[in-house]
Structures are given as C-alpha cells and as structure tokens.
Amino acid sequence: MLASILASGLAVGAVYALIGITYNTMFQASRVMSFTAGQLGMLGGVFGSALVLRLGLPIIVGLALTLLSCALVGIVTEIVAVRPVLKSLDQHLYVLSTLALALMIQQLVAIEWGTEPRPFPHLFGIGSGGLSDEKFWLPVIACAAVILGLEWLYRHTLVGRAFLAIAEDNFAARALGLPERELRIASFALAGMIGALAGFSGGALLLAFFANGALLNFYGFVPVALGGLGNNRGAVIGGLALGVFQQAANFWVGGIFASIAVFVLFIIVLLAAPQGLFGHHAARRV
Amino acid sequence: MQDFPMHDSPMQDSRMQGSRIALAAVGEKRRFGPRWSDIAPLVAIFALALLVPLASNDYWVLIATRAAIYWVLVAGLNLMIGFAGQLAIGYVALLTLGAYTTSVLVAGNVMPPLHPFAALGVAALAGSLFGVLVGLPALRLRTFYFAMSTLGFATIVTQIALAWQSVTGGGIGLPGPELPAPFDSHAGLFYFCLGIAALVTLLTFNLAHSRFGRALIALRDAEVAAEAMGISKPRLLVSVFLLAGAVAALAGGLFASLQTYITPDAFTFDLSVLFFIAVLIGGRGSILGPLLGTVILTLLPEFAAPLAAWSTFLYAVLLLGIVLVAPGGIADLLDRVNRRPLPANRAILPQPALLDPLIAVTSHGAGIALRRIMLSFGGVRAVDGVDLAIPRGQIHGLIGPNGSGKTTTLNLISGYYRPQSGEVTLDDRPLEPGRPETRALSGIARTFQTPRIIGEASVLQNVMIGGSIRGRASFPEAMLSAPRHRADETMLADSAGLALRAVGLGGLADIRADRLQHSELRFLEIARALMTRPCFILLDEPAAGLAPDEIQRLGVLIQEIARRGTGVLLVEHHADLIFAICDQVTVLNLGRVLAAGTPDDIRRHQEVVSAYLG
C-alpha cells in the first residue's frame, strides 16, 4: 500500500512540480505570476486527447503539435496579458490581465471541448493496471527530463545564460544589450511547452478536463510558495512532497481532510516563511 | 533660531497676487459627509426594486431576488476589492460555504434541525471565520498570494462539498432551507432579500464615507504613507474580512433558499468571475458603480439568451479590456471627461497664523535621539554609527551627497527599517523598531521623498487620512453612522480644511489629488502630516522640485511650525534652505557623520566644504 501511495503521490507531485516550473519560468523573465500556468497544463491534456484520440494522429506528432500550440499560447500570454502591464507599477494589473486570459482559455475549452472529463490515450500501453502503469511514471520522467533540460539550457547555452541574466537583473541585462523582449517571449514559449508537458504526461492521471486549469493553478502554485518564487529546485521538492502528502492523507484520513490539510499547510507556509522554505528573505523597499 | 531672510515682504506680496484663490476658501463653511447626489441614485434603485413584484411575473421576481442576493455578497467584496485593493478571486467559496452551512443546519444532517434564521446566523459566523482565515496571507504578502489563497479555498470547498456525502449529499446535493411565512412566497423571499441588501448597502455606504473607508483606500494606493499615519493594515483588513465573509455566507444561505435545492454544480467559478467583474466594471472606491454592475451582469444573460454560454468568456474579455484600456475603471473615465481646468497661475500661499490650533506640543522631554545606529544592506553600510538628536521646537538639518544615508536614517526613525545595532529613543524611551504604524501615535509624522498620495481621492480627503488616529468611533460605530462617528467626520473635515489653508492649498480642497502639481503635493504632504498633531515632523527633501519662491515660503512655513514647538528633521539638498532655517545641521557621508553643529560651524567646516558644498 505504501508503494501505491508513493507511486501515485510522486506522479501527481511531478505534475504539480512541472506547473510550478511553468510559473517560475514566466516569473523569471517578467516578474509576473501568471494565472495561465494551470491552464497550460489543462491544455496539454486536452490537446493530447483531441489530437491523438480524436484525430488519430501518431503519438509523437500529437506531442509535437501539443507542445507547439501551448508555446503559442505562452507567446499570446506575453503579448496580450503581460507586455501591456509591465510598465505599470501596479501589480494588480497583471493579476487581472492574466486571470482574464486564463478564464478566456478555460471557457473556450469548456464550450468547444465540453465540460465532461474525457479519456486520455495510452501512450506506450505498457504496465497497464499495476504500479508499473505508465500513468505513474510518465510524469516523473517528464519532470526529470525538464529539470535536466533546463539545467543544460541555463548552464551550457548562451541563450540560457541570457535567461539567467534577465532573471537576475533586468536593467543590467538590457544595458548589456541583451534583447530583453525577445528573451521574454522565448521564456513564455518555453513555459508554454513545460506546462503542456505537465498536462500531456499527466493526462492519464488527470484526464482531459476543462476544470483542471483552476485546480492546477492552485496545486501548482503551492510548490512555488513552498520553494520560493523562481526557485525550480524548491518547486520540484515542494511539488513531490505535496503530491505524496496529498495521496497519503487521502488514503489514511480521507479526501476531505486531505484538502483541508493542504490548504492549511499552504496558509501556514505563507505566513511563517513568505519567501518560501528554500528562498531568500528580501529587504523591504520604502 | 535665525529668521529666514526677507521673511515678511514676499509673503505679503504673493498673498495679494493669489488672493482670489486664497479667499475662496477662507471663511467658507464646508458641509462634509456623503452628499445627496451620492445617496439619491441608491435610494432610487431600491425604490424601483420595491415595485418589481407588483409590475411583473414570478420569473422576474426570481431574477430580481438573485440580483439582490448577489449584491449582498458583492457589497462586502466591494470593500475588499474596490476599497482595500485585495483581489479576492475565489469568493464564490464563501457563498458555497454559507449555502451548505444553512442547508445542512436546517435539514438537521449533523445535529437537530435549526430554525432557518438561526442557521443563517451560524452561516454568517462561519463566513466571517473563514473570511479571516483565507485573508491571512493578505495581511503580510502581496495581493497575488491572497488571490491564490482565495482560489485555493474555492478549490477545496468544492472538493469537500463533493466528498462529504453524509452531510452535503455529495454530487446529489440537498434541499435548501425554506424560510418561515411570510417569506416563503416568491415575493416574500424577494422582499426579505431586498431588505438585507438595503441594510448591507447602508452599512458599506457608511463605512465607505468614514475614516475606515479612506484608510482602506490609503492602504490600496499608498500603503507606506498609510502606515506612517498610524493606520494598521492587519487590524483594518481583518475587520473588512469579518464583514465581507459574514455577508457573503449570508448571501449563500439566501441563495440556497432561492434555489430550493443545491448541488456543487450550482457554485461554479463563473459566479466568482461575475462578482469580481461587477466590482471592477463599476469602478474602484464606489458603492453605486458595483451595485449597477451587479444588476447589469445578473440581467444580461436574460436579455441575451443566445450568448448565455459565452457570458463568462465575454466577462473575461471585458475584464481584459478594462485592465488594458481603462485601468482606473469607468468612474475614472467619466472624471476625465467632466473635469474643468484648474487656474494655471495659482500660487501656494501658506498662512502660518492658522497653525496655532494645529500644533499642540504639550509634553516635554529629550526629544528624538539616535545612538550609534548601524544598518547595512548586503555588504554596504548604509548607516554606520550615526548619532543624532532632534529636540522639540528646533529644526535639525540632515545633508550629504546621494547615498550618504539620509533617507535611510529617516526610515530608521520612522520604523520602516530595523537598525542592526544602536537604538532610537523618544524622550529617553526606545521606539519600537520595524513598527512604522506606531509612530503616528508617538507623535512622529513624516513626508516622503516621492509624494505618496491617493490620486483618486480629493485633496481634502487625502489630508483627512492624516487624522485617522484621532478618530474616536469604532469600526461598527462607523458602519452604523453613530453620533461619535459623525462627530469624528466633522472634526476631521474641519481640521483638514484648516491644515490645507495653513499650508496654502485651501482653494484646492475638492480637487482630485492626482491633478495637483508636484510642488503642491509636497505641501499637501505637510498638511497631512500636521493632521496627526505631531510633536516631531520628518521632512524628506520637501524642497525638491520647488521653484525658488516656493522654497522660500516652504522655509517660512517650516520655521513657523518649529516655532510652535514641533521638532523638525529636514533632509535636504538645498544648502541655502538648510543654512537659512536650521538650528543644527548634521552632514552625512558614506553613512557616517562627517560634521555636526550650527549652520555657521558647518559652513566653515573644511571637509564639508570641499566634499559637498564645493
């Protein structure tokens, strides 16, 4: 039983962690926390199901098209909801603009795709049923791949270093002549693909369901709060811990308590360590 | 104390020039408080609503009941979003909570059945409790976290409603409470809901026009300044969360009664969006706007049936449109259209004679003293062992090159920063570090290097915010417009008017503050600081951006303030002003005291002259 809790907990946790990384990727490039992060995860599942199950495309083509579409959604987010409000000092504006876009995405899916959860295709068809079922290990593999990929990108490529420079000090990076706007667009495209991967790899677990967006928005943000804004390693640890905790609580004390426990934990962490458990305390500016 | 050169003549001179503006305000008895034009539309809407059951069929009565119930919730949410600027995006959760609490208690699923009214009361209590719990992150963190915590709460409430089958009936749901006669008919329920809606409107209207309403807006638009005026964010927000949570849950109970049967499906996130957008379309800081917004958004799907499926999508488009095109809301657009030009050649003409009733320095003591204060940011020693004394009735100048630690010193005194070592005392008692909201009560007021004002509020209201700590009425008293509250309002308006005339802005009292010139904002901040009846006033570069004649009048004003017993700390770059009016001058360089003494000492100080004065 412990094994099944761990397996499902790590799987769900990996999806949360990926959504957390989606938040972080957008945040690092723009200092904006975008409500579209969860919707990207939802879209990953819906596009995957639509392309592979409904249109019958090969899985690899379906995945590629899903990633591409979500990258596009990321870019649209940047153009429509982020760029216009970046100049404003009022942080209310980005909360509202990204929320508006997220709602538009969710409603479009609800209308065009339907409000019932739909099945997601089996990708490899191995280990169906038991603990070795692909739905348990696919998200974990996707999460590991994303982390390794990002590490490689940030450490070994020029573009990756430019991302880091923008994240570290926007003004200085621009002064050095880095194309800040293009890098920001690229970051949002990248975030779109990471979110899509979260939904695609977790599709068998979460199904293709329009309401997953709001759910992932919250459960994907909890790891970010735990790990600290912009801290990917923190998000992965936080996401996996959240997933296991949730499944364990589900099993031992029931779903009601599990939900309450996660929420209370979230509030406590925010109050006790607002910079996250792995983040740094920032001095207040007056 | 030295006199400012040419004290008398320019004052009289300019008083003549600008007499038109100055006179307009003097002697005029201002009636302050909600105007009839604010109240009339609200009364008209409710009077019209009374006629609905007489003039139409049951269907429209149902729709009108729904609008009334939504407004009960939105009225509370309006204080939170429109006034306090806290973006509660998942407030449907409190509607759900109230609906289930009332239904479950009346049905008797967990304990013997309760009377519907008692159940509504319990639901309201539960609503305030959870309203505060969900709001806890807002007390300390940026509004995004609060948005997230309300979203999370909405997520788990739905999950619980589905999972806790023995109590909530799970996906099948349970019947809503039926109110006793005469409220069991369609019209009866409507009048009951309308009555509650009217009551909630009255309460929030009173709050909006009280010092608490102004303080909420101050926290939204100028949080740092609000703290300096002694406004405690956590206390105020908790009061608002209690109220908004209670009315939202109450609305939930009524909603369940209207629906007659509730399932988790009845409480979709779309409803949250509707509430949220009703406030934003109506405009921030208004009661009428969000009320109209609620009514329109409730009615709209009835008139545009083919669009019903798209309504939430269209609301979202509308939201994005508002954010991108008119972030200030519709009220702001209207204001821009209707405004008349201000006189271009207006002058700021302080009337120091009016300062007498504004300054009441009674206690005596050693004043403010800093001893061996040290603070570094990262590796930089911003303030490195500074000693400073500000006695009452004197002007202490603080000068030095950029980055020498002047403003940091000021922020240490006013409690925004905690020193790493050393202490700040007031009359030999330590001032609590890191608690800026306590300074106003200790008699320390300040202004800011960049004026921090509420652009959407009138100049008079901006100044009244300074007097927040002098109000006597409690939050509930303000809500009920009790006599003590009305006395507060009269007192605050009178003394704000006086403070404005004293600093020379009497003619601009009713103008929106964001239309003022930069120099006028500086004087506005001084008037606001005077409202706390300070024993000490800390001025952060008050002369920056002022014309020479304005600097000269500012100098006179500061001298007159100090002459009446207030201690002044003056951070400035204008050496002329410093040397003309200060009793003591401290020169900082790289966080250390380079020199301290009388203006004459400093003027002769070799190092200062070569390093700074040139």
Radius of gyration of chain B: 28 Å
The description of the largest β-sheet of chain A is:
none
| Distance between the first and last residues' Cα of chain B | 26 Å
Work out the largest interface and the residue count of each chain: A-B, 44 and 47 residues
Q: Distance N terminus to C terminus of chain A?
A: 53 Å
User: Please, what is the average pLDDT of chain A?
Assistant: 88
Sheet with most strands: strand arrangement of chain B: 8-9-10-5-11-12
Search tags:
heterodimer; A: 286 residues; mainly alpha; 12 helices; B: 614 residues; alpha/beta; six-stranded mixed beta sheet; four-stranded antiparallel beta sheet; 10% strand; disordered N terminus
Structural topology:
The complex is a heterodimer of chains A (286) and B (614).
Chain A: H1 2-30, H2 36-54, H3 59-86, H4 91-113, H5 134-156, H6 158-168, H7 170-175, H8 180-201, H9 203-206, H10 212-227, H11 232-253, H12 255-272
Helix pairs in contact in A: 1-2, 1-5, 1-6, 1-8, 1-10, 1-11, 2-3, 2-4, 2-8, 2-10, 3-4, 3-8, 5-6, 5-8, 6-8, 10-11, 11-12
Chain B: H1 9-17, H2 19-25, H3 36-50, H4 52-55, H5 58-83, H6 92-107, H7 116-140, H8 143-163, H9 165-168, E1 174-175, H10 186-208, H11 211-221, H12 223-228, H13 233-259, E2 261-262, H14 269-282, H15 288-303, H16 311-325, H17 329-338, E3 368-377, E4 380-390, E5 395-399, H18 406-413, E6 421-426, E7 429-430, E8 444-446, H19 459-465, H20 475-479, H21 483-503, H22 518-530, E9 536-540, H23 548-563, E10 567-571, H24 575-581, E11 584-589, E12 592-597, H25 599-604, H26 606-613
Helix pairs in contact in B: 3-10, 5-10, 5-13, 5-14, 5-15, 6-7, 6-8, 6-13, 7-8, 7-13, 11-19, 14-15, 14-16, 19-21, 19-22, 21-22
